[in-house]
């Protein structure tokens, strides 16, 4: 049985993707920020698939230390259950914000959760991914297409616009997938970014404020999260690595011109510096 790890699996797209992959025979290691919500999500998945293998680990992925601790716990789990091999890591946990807020580490929150948490988890799990010739999947968004990385003010402290910050974090997701392919193809790791579509979840409502109000109207046009989950299944199920970088549930699609090798490499180095880590040492 192949193992996948998925973050942000207590609601929305993550919960339905974890359910779908558990129903399709994967062993699922899932994460959420709250232990009670993790238990409820696990119960819900087991109600759909009573024989499923599903384990939840709670962690606040806005904290760099928690992301690294989580990857250590998952590595122990994989050593016990899957000969240390990880078939796929889906970095899906995310948030939207209505105003500027920083994490304990002093990072803008959308950047920290939507992108950097995935960068750190991938770092911690890269030996397990490499062992299995595994896949890394970033939950990106069509909105990355309107964005640029603000290299001189990555935390967007000047004239903060929450939507700009969200779009930048999603562009970073696509750039990271590109950087992984550029740097680690030789290790057998393959990375993708997924556009789940406009999906009817609570993500904007959790932000409150103006984002919450706008989202309440916008999400009425969204597809159910169970439908968007198909995009992830299409990348996890085939035996051979699917081609391409950026996918939705119908297949490969075009991504922003900002996704260049140069921007991908630059973001990778900046992220290593921000986290005080070096991927070279881990892989
Ligand atoms: N909905 C859309 O139309 C859409 C479109 C494009 C991309 N996306 C992306 O899809 C991903 C999932 O979003 P969604 O729409 O499914 O929203 P969601 O239902 O709010 O799911 C977000 C998940 O992340 C978890 N999370 C939030 N803060 C966290 C933290 N500090 N530490 C760890 N986990 C945390 C949430 O936990 P709780 O359950 O406790 O809140 C939840 O499990 C995000 O990356 C989002 O940017 C969504």
Number of H- or I-type helical stretches = 9
The CATH topology comes to Rossmann fold
Distance between the termini: 24 Å
Return the average pLDDT rounded to an integer: 97
Helix amount, in percent?
40-55%
The ordered H/E elements are EHEHEHEHEHEHHEEHH
The first-level CATH class is given as Alpha Beta
Fraction of residues in β-strands:
5-15%
Tell me the radius of gyration.
17 Å
What is the number of independent domains?
Answer: 1
Supply the helix-strand structural class: alpha/beta
Q: Uncertain spans, ≥5 residues at pLDDT below 50?
A: none
Listed once per kind, the bound small molecules are: NADP nicotinamide-adenine-dinucleotide phosphate
What's the short story on this structure?
The protein has one domain (3-194, 230-282): Rossmann fold (3-Layer(aba) Sandwich). Helix content is 47%, strand content 12%.
Explain the layout of strands and helices.
Blueprint: E1 3-6, H1 12-23, E2 27-32, H2 35-48, E3 54-58, H3 64-81, E4 88-91, H4 109-132, E5 135-139, H5 162-184, E6 190-194, H6 209-218, H7 225-236, E7 246-248, E8 251-252, H8 261-275, H9 279-282
Parallel strand pairs: 1-2, 1-4, 2-3, 4-5, 5-6, 6-7
Antiparallel strand pairs: 7-8
Helix pairs in contact: 1-2, 1-7, 3-4, 4-5, 5-8
């Amino acid at each position: 049985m192949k193992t996948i790890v998925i973050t942000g699996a207590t609601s929305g797209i993550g919960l339905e993707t974890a359910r779908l992959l558990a129903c399709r025979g994967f062993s699922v290691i899932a994460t959420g920020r709250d232990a009670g919500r993790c238990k409820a999500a696990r119960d819900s998945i087991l109600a759909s698939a009573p024989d499923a293998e599903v384990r939840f680990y709670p962690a606040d992925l806005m904290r760099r230390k928690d992301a690294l601790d989580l990857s250590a716990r998952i590595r122990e789990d994989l050593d016990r259950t899957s000969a240390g091999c990880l078939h796929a890591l889906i970095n899906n946990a995310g948030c939207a914000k209505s105003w500027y807020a920083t994490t304990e580490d002093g990072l803008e929150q959308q950047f920290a959760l939507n992108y950097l948490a995935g960068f750190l988890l991938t770092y911690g799990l890269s030996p397990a991914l490499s062992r299995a010739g595994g896949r890394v999947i970033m939950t990106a968004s069509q909105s990355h297409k309107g964005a640029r990385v603000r290299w001189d003010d990555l935390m967007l402290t000047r004239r903060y616009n929450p939507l700009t910050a969200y779009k930048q974090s999603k562009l970073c997701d696509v750039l990271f997938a590109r950087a992984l392919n550029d740097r680690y193809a030789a290790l057998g790791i393959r990375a993708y970014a997924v556009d789940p579509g406009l999906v009817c979840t609570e993500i904007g409502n959790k932000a409150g404020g103006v984002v919450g109000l706008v989202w309440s109207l916008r999400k009425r046009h969204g597809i159910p999260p169970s439908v968007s989950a198909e995009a992830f299944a299409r990348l996890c199920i085939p035996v051979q690595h699917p081609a391409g970088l950026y996918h939705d549930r119908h297949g490969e699609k075009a991504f922003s011109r900002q996704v260049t090798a140069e921007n991908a490499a630059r973001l990778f180095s900046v992220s290593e510096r921000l986290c005080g880590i070096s991927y070279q040492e881990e892989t």
